[in-house]
């Protein structure tokens, strides 16, 4: 689906290290998700646009 919307790359669960300790219900907890995602962003060619979908409700991170 993401490719049909014009995205070049989508990172899914298979791209992350998910364990019982760093996950809850359907996936990674927010902090491990952001930590692992930042590592992936370091290797992308610039410029890029990134969007993160988290599992928990909270205010935006700035």
What is shown here, in short?
19% of the residues lie in helices and 6% in strands. The chain has 62 residues and is α+β, with helices and mostly antiparallel strands.
Task: Describe the protein's architecture and organization.
- The protein is α+β, with helices and mostly antiparallel strands and 62 residues long.
- Helix content is 19%, strand content 6%.
- It has one helix at 30-41, and strands spanning 23-24, 27-28.
- It has a two-stranded antiparallel ribbon with strand order 1-2.
- Strand 1 and strand 2 form a beta hairpin.
- The radius of gyration is 13 Å and the shape is globular.
- The model has no long low-confidence stretch (mean pLDDT 88).
Q: What low-confidence regions span 5 or more consecutive residues with pLDDT below 50?
A: none
What pattern of helices and strands is seen along the backbone? EEH
Per DSSP E runs of 2 or more residues, the count of β-strands stands at: 2
| Backbone shape | globular
Count of helical stretches: 1
Helical fraction: 10-25%
Largest sheet properties = 2 strands, antiparallel
Instruction: Using the CA coordinates, give the radius of gyration.
Output: 13 Å
- Span of the ends, CA to CA: 28 Å
Biggest sheet strand order reads 1-2
Query: Which strand-content bin applies to the residues?
Result: 5-15%
Q: What average pLDDT do the residues reach? A: 88
> Based on helices, strands and strand pairing, what is the structural class?
alpha+beta
